[in-house]
Write a structure and sequence with these properties.
Elements lengths: L1 E5 L8 H15 L3 E5 L34 H12 L2 H14 L3 E4 L3 H4 L2 H8 L4 E4 L13 E2 L2 E2 L9 H4 L7 H16 L8 E4 L2 H8 L9 E3 L24 E6 L8 H13 L4 E6 L5 H12 L5 E5 L6 H5 L4 E4 L9 H8 L4 E4 L2 H6 L6 E4 L4 H10 L5 H18 L2 H21 L1
Parallel strand pairs: 1-2, 1-3, 3-4, 4-7, 7-8, 9-10, 9-12, 10-11, 12-13, 13-14
Antiparallel strand pairs: 5-6
Helix pairs in contact: 3-5, 9-14, 12-15
Length: about 425
């Protein structure tokens, strides 16, 4: 099968790109011809199809944080492209005409590629499957989180994105977002998509609660883990807590991730006389991250270490001695990679009982849950871990790895993906 794989960038940057290259390899290992389509960024991986990648309005616009010197002409081009990108439509059309793929698998596109990709596929009657890894389709901020709390108002009326200036706290940018969303809604672009897949059932239900996507077809296909990860067997970890309980967090350090909740809980646990060590791994360049570092110093919490950014290849070395990982999210996390990797390593996860996290973690089986944004409840859950027997801990650790092999199995992912692909292809052929 010839498959066009569409993502607005073609280099490893985060979770979505990790999936991009993993699923490309998975499909190719099963005999399929995978053809990437993206924008021509300087960081892109090498590909024979790069000649079809259109140039962005501004080179590496999404990477460069200093956008103050952009000309009015370039700004207008960026705005125009967010509605309909003619270069993307033209180049993707040329690629389809040359390669004649049987299906398009779309990962992330947003305003960078625009919904013009669906028009190109429609022009050549190519079925389209879109993987939903975030909430960009119905949330201006992408995370359903505003003013330190969950906000789902845009599900019912996107005018709220204007009222609250949800895009970079700018009325002008929020207005452009609103217009582009209304434009795409009037064009009923979702009808050009044959199927959506999502890694969590919660995400599917949330998207279907929006009228625009209430009639769309969604399929639950959990993220998969590569076989090479299974080489780690941590079930024999010593749960002797004479040196204290060790926990960790790794990922984005932003307000919606709830690192402040974790720090406050650690403060309570430490004040109650429990010996606890905490590692926090992630980019600390944001204002929020710096504020949390200052708070730990103000609280005198020298048992919390901020390690900064650590590459995915080296993360295991940093957290291998930890007994638990914590995901204290305040928003609807959509099956985060850190949860998958933690369970793969045999490290049980303590998560907020919210969104897909509550769906994925079974209390006492592959981790523990606490009430979202509830510092005291998280502190109590951590203190209870000091009473956990070693054999119980080992059983939970072993179940984590069993759950991963069952729920995130790459062969199951491939079969589920191909079932959806074959279904939409057969439907096109029968028309």
């Amino acid at each position: 099968m010839k498959i066009i794989l569409i993502h607005y960038r073609y280099y490893r940057a985060g979770g979505p790109e990790k999936y991009l290259f993993s699923v490309k390899e998975l499909l190719e290992n099963n005999g399929h011809n995978v053809i990437p389509f993206s924008l021509a960024f300087s960081q892109n991986s090498e590909t024979a199809y790069k000649q079809y990648f259109p140039q962005p309005a501004i080179k590496d616009f999404h990477i460069d944080k200093n956008k103050d010197n952009i000309s009015i002409k370039k700004k207008l081009e960026i705005i125009k492209n967010s509605f309909f990108n003619k270069k993307v439509f033209s180049n993707l059309s040329a690629l389809i005409e040359m390669e004649k793929p049987e299906i398009a698998y779309v990962l992330q596109y947003g305003s960078k590629l625009s919904t013009s990709i669906f028009d190109a596929c429609k022009k050549y009657d190519i079925p389209v499957v879109v993987r939903v890894s975030d909430f960009n389709l119905i949330c201006a901020k992408n995370v359903f989180f505003r003013n330190n709390e969950i906000c789902t108002k845009c599900i019912y009326n996107k005018l709220y994105s204007l009222k609250y200036k949800c895009v970079h706290d700018s009325f002008a940018q929020s207005f452009i977002y609103y217009l582009s969303q209304k434009y795409n809604q009037l064009r009923t672009f979702e009808k050009k998509i044959d199927a959506f897949i999502a890694p969590s059932k919660f995400t599917i239900n949330l998207l279907k609660s929006n009228n625009q996507f209430s009639s769309s077809r969604f399929f639950h296909v959990p993220t998969f883990i590569e076989d090479s990860k299974y080489e780690f067997n941590l079930n024999l970890r010593d749960y002797n807590l004479q040196n204290g309980l060790k926990i960790c967090y790794w990922g984005r350090i932003d307000e919606d991730k709830g690192i402040d909740i974790l720090i406050d809980a650690v403060k309570l646990v430490s004040q109650n006389g429990f010996k606890l060590g905490v590692k926090i791994v992630g980019d600390t360049n944001s204002e929020y991250a710096q504020n949390q570092i200052r708070r730990t110093k103000d609280f005198g919490l020298d048992n919390i270490s901020f390690l900064g950014y650590v590459s995915n290849q080296n993360i295991f070395e940093e957290i291998r001695d930890c007994h638990f990982s914590v995901i204290p999210s305040k928003w609807f996390d959509n099956m985060p990679n850190s949860l998958i990797e933690s369970c793969t390593f045999g490290i049980p996860v303590i998560v907020s009982k919210i969104g897909s996290l509550d769906e994925i973690i079974s209390d006492g089986k592959n981790g523990f849950t606490f009430n979202p944004s509830d510092t005291l409840d998280l502190a109590n859950k951590i203190e209870n871990l000091f009473n956990l027997r070693e054999n119980n801990y080992n059983n939970i650790s072993a179940y984590c790895q069993k759950w991963i092999k069952d729920y995130c199995d790459k062969n199951s992912h491939y079969r589920n993906l191909m079932n959806v692909f074959n279904m939409v292809i057969d439907e096109k052929d029968s028309k």
